Amino acid sequence: MKVKIIENSKNRIKFELEGRQHTLCNALSSELWNDKDITAAGYTLEHPLISNSILVVETKSGDAKKALLKAIDRLKKTNNEFLGLCKKVAK
Length: 91
Hints:
This protein has 91 residues and is of the alpha+beta class. It contains two helices and four strands.
């Protein structure tokens, strides 16, 4: 997966995820809203036949890039917990 930074300032980051549509972007934007400093978190698909998503993250205070990385870490943790539960059930 390629990530292209479109805009990067302290309180705002905008980037493109090549080859990604709703699944990852929806999970990421939903997780970002769990952070009290987030003022905007969402994504768009420019065209349904082009699978690149544009994500925007804005914070009222703090670093948007750090907030994004924290949200990614929380998603990884949730994913690992879910994987562990699935493995227990599959035994």
